Amino acid sequence: MAVTPIPSESERQAFLSLPNVLSLVRIPLAGVPWLARHDLWLLIATMCVAAFTDWADGRVARRRGDAAARATGAWLDPLCDKAFVVSVALLVFVVHDPPWAFVALVLTREALQAPLVLLYHLRRPPRGFDFRAGVLGKATTCAQFFAIGALVLDLEAAMPLAVFSALVGIAAVASYVRRFLRSRVSE
């Protein structure tokens, strides 16, 4: 059995920095709507809090000069985003019974990105590769939230917003792949 080294004090501090704690808040937030599954306003309020923490973690991280915390946040923030989005999408699927196409469209980025993230962690990542969410990644998360919100509010815009979130999600994944390939070439 492999022994996992105990994290150093600086690694613990980097993990528990303010931006990373803001990201980690989305993990328990993912379970809140499940506690009151039919409370529409709780779902919307939870999505707003999650969106705020997603915006705030990036803003705080850019203002702080802690490179170790930013490096941890580069993988932690998208992981927390995905946990939240997948949980809410599953809840919406269970409670609101949307068309399968809606759920597939909203989760397109996660479906495309999951194998890439796995590959990234299984292979030695190129030096200098930055896995942080870019503008397209953040836009995808916002589009997913708007699509889910429109669905639970029974707005006709739900399916067009789901299509939009899928298109932006595909562009975000393409951006990650392009950045990865560029970093491989420069290695």
What does this structure look like?
- With 187 residues, the protein is an all-alpha fold.
- It has a single domain, classed as Up-down Bundle (Four Helix Bundle (Hemerythrin (Met), subunit A)), CATH 1.20.120.
- Helices cover 77% and strands 0% of the residues.
- The protein has helices at residues 9-15, 18-24, 26-29, 32-35, 40-63, 67-96, 100-106, 108-122, 135-152, 158-185.
- It is globular.
Entry summary:
With 187 residues, the chain is mainly alpha-helical. It has 10 helices and no strands.
Hey, roughly how much beta strand do the residues contain? under 5%
Tell me the total number of β-strands.
0
In DSSP terms (H or I, runs of 4 or more residues), the helix count works out at: 10
Per the CATH scheme, the topology name is Four Helix Bundle (Hemerythrin (Met), subunit A)
C-alpha geometry: globular
Domain tally: 1
**At CATH's second level, what is the architecture?**
Up-down Bundle
Structural class: mainly alpha
**Beginning-to-end CA distance, first to last residue:** 33 Å
CATH class: Mainly Alpha
Helix content estimate: over 70%
List unreliable stretches of 5+ residues: none
Biggest sheet character: none
Kindly report the average pLDDT value.
Answer: 82
Radius of gyration: 17 Å
Provide tags for this entry.
single chain, 187 residues, mainly alpha, Four Helix Bundle (Hemerythrin (Met), subunit A), 10 helices
List the helices and strands and how they pair.
Blueprint: H1 9-15, H2 18-24, H3 26-29, H4 32-35, H5 40-63, H6 67-96, H7 100-106, H8 108-122, H9 135-152, H10 158-185
Helix pairs in contact: 1-6, 2-5, 2-6, 5-6, 5-9, 6-9, 7-10, 8-10, 9-10
